[in-house]
Structure formats: structure tokens, C-alpha cells
């Protein structure tokens, strides 16, 4: 890879890292559609392996930044991350059985479905919900002194995390685009905590998925691309984490939904 192409991929990675970390989605939902357009003849497993490796780099860098902000719910994050591991490994080994055309449509429909869910759910929670119905109660104070309180059903979170692990590894999108809506709507996490905790979960889950792809040899010829993208996302992730606590939570969710729908339409229409 020459210097020009390395720089172009690094800039792409910077944008992916900044936006992905801002909304807690890892950036895979942005990167993978771009890779599909840049490499129209590549197999789904080759492209998902690149995307998932970059998601791992991005989510790890973002997790470090969010850790400094003290916004990660580690107890919930570890439980959910462990639940994603079996699905992540199975998904990585399943990708090679999906034809490229089917892969594009499947990813596009999934992205549009999530976007519509965010827009149309009538009782969408942008604030934490505390109720005696749920046994798990969390209280977290971040570095700036903001205190968040919420409660949720742990069994629901673990069950959904397994599905998220499978779909995200299968499609190479990381899983944050699913986990953030789940954490904020079904599990009632405050948006700032959901984005940070989602990144922590992604770091563990994407490591397992990437390991499975490496074991299959899917990354053997694409390491230069991963290195260039990874360099960019490390820098972009720091910017995204910095901007996350200077942006209204409602706008984070709206940007996520709009982005998902636009990308989904593009993939289905290819």
C-alpha cells in the first residue's frame, strides 16, 4: 500500500472512530458499507473481518477515553460482554456461507429496522427509568460529578447480548448500533452511560470475533488496510469521546437513527 492510499484509509478511520465513539456504536455500521463500495468483488467474510478488527481497535481506544470520564458500568458491561462471546464466535464462522448480494440486503434491512425502531417507538426513554419491577439498580457518578440512577432486567440484557454478538460478528458491524438502542430503550440506561458501556462491551466482543476470523485466515491479506484504518480510529475515538459529553443525548440518538436509515437504503438499492 502506498502513502496516498494509507493516508486515505487513515482519514476514513478517523471519521469512523469519531462518529462511532460519539454514539457508542464502534463505527462498524459506517465502515462496512464503505468497504462494500470500495471492494465490490471481495467476499463478505473478508470485509467483515476488516471491519470487526477496526471495531476492536476503535472500541478499545474509546473505552480508554470513556474510562477516564468514569461513565462505564463495568458490572453490567462484563456480564453482557460474556453473553456476546458465543454468538460472536458462531457469527464469524457463519459469514462465509452468505452470498454477497444476500449479505448487502440483510445488512441494509437490519440498519433500516433499527432506525425505524428509534423513530417510532412511542415511549422511547431518553432518561433513566427506575422501577421496583427490576431487581438490578445502578447508581454511577462520572468524573464531572453527574449522578445517574437506573434499574433494569439483567436476564433480558444477557439474552439480547447473545443475539447482538451473533449479528454483529456475522455482519461485521460491531454491535453498538444494536446495543445502544437496547440499553437505552429496553434496559433504561441513561444515554451517556449506554454509549460508554456499549464501547466496553464491543471491545471484548469484537476481540472474540476478530480472533475467529484470524483463525480462518480471513485477515491474512488485508493487514495493511486494517493498520491504516486502525491508526485513524484511535485518534478519532478520542475526539468522539470528548464530544460525547458536550452533545445533547437526544441528538446523539437522532444522528444514529438518521445515519442508519440512509446507509440501509443505500445497501438495499445496490
3D structure, described in words:
The protein has 270 residues and is mainly alpha-helical. The chain contains ten helices and two strands; from the N terminus they run H-H-H-H-H-E-E-H-H-H-H-H. It has helices at 3-23, 28-38, 44-69, 74-94, 100-120, 154-171, 176-186, 191-215, 223-244, 249-268, and strands spanning 136-141, 147-152. A two-stranded antiparallel sheet has the order 1-2. Strand 1 (136-141) and strand 2 form a beta hairpin. 51% of the residues are buried.
SSE map:
Blueprint lengths: L2 H21 L4 H11 L5 H26 L4 H21 L5 H21 L15 E6 L5 E6 L1 H18 L4 H11 L4 H25 L7 H22 L4 H20 L2
Quick structural gist:
This protein is mainly alpha-helical.
Query: In percent terms, what proportion of residues is strand?
Result: under 5%
Taking the sheet with the most strands, its summary is:
2 strands, antiparallel
Mean residue pLDDT: 83
Sheet with most strands: strand arrangement: 1-2
The chain-level structural class is mainly alpha
Order of helices and strands: HHHHHEEHHHHH
Tally the beta strands.
2
- Straight-line distance between termini: 28 Å
Work out the helicity level. Answer: over 70%
- Helical run tally: 10
Our Rg estimate from Cα atoms comes to: 17 Å
What's the overall geometry?
A: globular
List the uncertain runs.
122-132
Amino acid at each position: 500500500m502506498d502513502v496516498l492510499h494509507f493516508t486515505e484509509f487513515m482519514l476514513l478511520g478517523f471519521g469512523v472512530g469519531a462518529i462511532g465513539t460519539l454514539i457508542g456504536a464502534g463505527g462498524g455500521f459506517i465502515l462496512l458499507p464503505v468497504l462494500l463500495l470500495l471492494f465490490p468483488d471481495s467476499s463478505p467474510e473478508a470485509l467483515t473481518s476488516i471491519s470487526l478488527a477496526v471495531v476492536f481497535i476503535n472500541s478499545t481506544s474509546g473505552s480508554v477515553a470513556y474510562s477516564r470520564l468514569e461513565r462505564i458500568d463495568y458490572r453490567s458491561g462484563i456480564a453482557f460482554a460474556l453473553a456476546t462471546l458465543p454468538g460472536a464466535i458462531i457469527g464469524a464462522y457463519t459469514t462465509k456461507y452468505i452470498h454477497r448480494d444476500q449479505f448487502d440486503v440483510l445488512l441494509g434491512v437490519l440498519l433500516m429496522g433499527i432506525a425505524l425502531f428509534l423513530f417510532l417507538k412511542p415511549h422511547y426513554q431518553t432518561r433513566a427509568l427506575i422501577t421496583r419491577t427490576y431487581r438490578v439498580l445502578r447508581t454511577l457518578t462520572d468524573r464531572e460529578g453527574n449522578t445517574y440512577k437506573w434499574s433494569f432486567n439483567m436476564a433480558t440484557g444477557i439474552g439480547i447480548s447473545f443475539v447482538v454478538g451473533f449479528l454483529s460478528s456475522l455482519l461485521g458491524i460491531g454491535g453498538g448500533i444494536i446495543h445502544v438502542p437496547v440499553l437505552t430503550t429496553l434496559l433504561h440506561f441513561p444515554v451517556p452511560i449506554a454509549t460508554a458501556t456499549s464501547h466496553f462491551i464491543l471491545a471484548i466482543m469484537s476481540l472474540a470475533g476478530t480472533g475467529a476470523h484470524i483463525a480462518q485466515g480471513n485477515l491474512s491479506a488485508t493487514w495493511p488496510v486494517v493498520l491504516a484504518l486502525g491508526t485513524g480510529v484511535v485518534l478519532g475515538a478520542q475526539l468522539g469521546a470528548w464530544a460525547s459529553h458536550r452533545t445533547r443525548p437526544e441528538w446523539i440518538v437522532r444522528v444514529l437513527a438518521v445515519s442508519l436509515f440512509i446507509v440501509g437504503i443505500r445497501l438495499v438499492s445496490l
